[in-house]
Amino acid sequence: MSFVNHSQYNRVAPARVDQRCEERHAVILQTASVRGKETKQEEARLVDVSSFGCRLEVEGRYKEGAKLLLTFFGRSPMPAKAIWLKDGQLGCRFNDAIDLCLFRALTINQA
Questions:
Q1: Residue 63: which CATH number?
Q2: Domain for residue 39, yes or no?
Q3: CA-to-CA distance for 40 and 23, rounded, in angstroms?
């Protein structure tokens, strides 16, 4: 018996490019603000949101791992972390899941 083609482990499907565990949703409100520890508050455009993160269009530069405060609808700032920055778009992960009421307000009437 050849052991080359046999294994005790199951084969797995290749990883998806999009590794998010939560679906991203289009948003109604596009105006947001973002502030980093080393940056001034700036207006940003909210592109999409999920329970645990969002994508913003920004002019500023943010380092991967930078601590941020994000504001939507003029509510209290939400702590988040910069995950990536590419071509003026900033991927953020919220420290805690977004409040359900705020999530609904941002995404209501979206298909």
A1: 2.40.10.220
A2: yes
A3: 30
